[in-house]
# Entry
Amino acid sequence: MKILILNWRDIKNPDFGGAEVATYEIAKRWVKWGHEVTWFSSKFKNCKEKEVIDGLKLIRQGSPFTVHLKAFLYYRKHFKNKFDLVIDQVHGIPFFTPFYVKEPKIAYIHELAGKIWFFEWPLPIALIGYFSDLFTFRIFYRKVKFVTGSLATQKDLLSVGISKNRIKVINYGISKNKISSKIKKEKDPTVIFLGRLYRSKRVEDIINAVKLLVKKYPKIHFWIVGKGKNSYTNNLINLVNDLKIDKNVTFYGFVDENQKYELLQKAWTLVMTSLKEGWCLTITEAAVMKTPAVVYNTGGLKDAVINNKTGIICQKNTPYDLAKNIDQLFKNSKFRKSLGENAQVFAKKFSWEKSAEEILKIFSSDSKN
# Structure
């Protein structure tokens, strides 16, 4: 079978995130099973326009802001009637494939931006984006099957007019080769954040929580792993300096896969405070390393954590409540170890092979109808 994936970024893009990791892990399994997969995405600095990675054919055109138009033009000229299935990935803006793609389609969405529009964009654009979510899917995607990774996003899709029988929740997976029984934690209390540095991630709340904990745990470490908007990153650095906790906080920037899992293994807890997530794959990756998560009670984050079993979900989304729950882990090593072991057992239930199979089953069932 020939599969076309339309996604504004690919796995080599410097700004790739969990959505691209999920796409890559699923798509490379399709290739392994004998399918032909083409991934169309935007260009980035010093990229190749065409490239093959693990059997995936990558084609790059335009920027993140023009890739949707480039996809339409490229499809009309090169792709039309050449694929058995088209995956329309939605990241704020969909590819509007119902307008021009006649082949079977699946909309793959990790989260509806919703209030994130107002955190990341100026007011005029945010308003347009927010209200476009309310109408775009209801008007143009009513007859398209949707795949998402969490009940939170399913709920959001229902709110914008997509019927429940057109939404399939398919869990994300994990890399089995990362599972290890030999875990070595840091000597001193260590908190880690892993993700892109954007305002909607609310990393400043974690910094403020660490400030509250410093008096009780003067040797506490907070590792901030990931990169993002320079302006927001600079704001975080300034906040750390203003709070006089620069000796407790390390900005790692972007790290490779090996270092990522090494840091996740050493940390005592992962902390995530996003306004919303599709699922937050990072929580599952941390769980593999027996690192429990303390998270805000928001869509996606609370789906990836079983409260007081694999991690802790805050009752209130405040730095004070965050600090209180982190402290609960720090002072009770038995509880912390139990959460970490439970988290790893929970993570083992997820499989990229199963995710890849279930998406193809949607196509197979539609083909028989």
About this structure: The radius of gyration is 21 Å. The CA atoms of residues 40 and 334 lie 48 Å apart. The chain has a mean pLDDT of 93. DSSP finds twelve helices and 14 strands in the chain.
